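Q: What changes when (5S)-5-amino-3-OXO-hexanoic acid is included in the input?
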Amino acid sequence: MEKLIITAAICGAEVTKEHSSSVPYTIEEIANEAYSAYKAGASIIHLHVREDDGTPTQSKERFKLAIDAILKKCPDVIIQPSTGGAVGMTTDERLQPIELNPEMATLDCGTLNFGGDEIFINTENDIKEFARRMQEKKIKPELECFEKGHIDMVLRLHKKGFITGPLHFSFVLGVNGGMAGELRDFLYMKESIPSDATYSVAGIGRFEFPLATAAIISGGHVRVGFEDNIYLKKGQLAQSNGELVKKVVTLANELGRAIATPEEARKILGIE
Ligand code: KMH
Ligand code: ZN
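A: The predicted holo structure follows.
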């Protein structure tokens, strides 16, 4: 089996210090959290940024500060800025970080409810435009799919040439409004993508570690981090993203799966 790529989603746009005081807001906090995840075995940092007061932003300048600070501590890590941002942001606002020419970025592949009154909007034309802009800049998209219909959208747009391969999916399961994160949900997603595609799974909340285990044993890759889950186990908050990554490394070691370095992750994903 290929080595395991661990992505750390260290910050997100929705989780706050009210949920856990360890959630990073400032550039320094974000860089420290990225370092803790990298040291523990993460090869990709899925990056959102915040103002110092915690307000989510897609400001190019703020991303540049964060990326520079992370690369100073983790020189070879792959940085994957979010183009999802926070619910309610415009597409132009969301696309700002790709101006910095990162190696990867997320591409959200469909609209869904996002808890309460929130709707995370990604129309077909939005997806085509995001894909075009990333293709233009040779940025590898991580195809975020929150339910099976999003995979169907990717396959259709891939067939029509709007999204180019090799395809790398991220199944984000357990969002209120998306598909749940039971084993059967994961298997349905995994079995719905082409056999030559790669995939990573991000389980929200209690789904995080069961789905990480399923991905480890089935040849997929794993995303963990405060964006998705703040608990090491029921009732026990993780003190850092590094602790969440370390738990995945322990599971992988126990199950006989080696961990990819950033360089190995680039090869697996076909990043030039
Ligand atoms: N914050 C969510 C609304 C992404 O990073 O591309 C969207 C999100 C997806 O986190
Ligand atoms: Zn995200």
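Observations recorded in class: The chain is about 35% helix and 20% strand.
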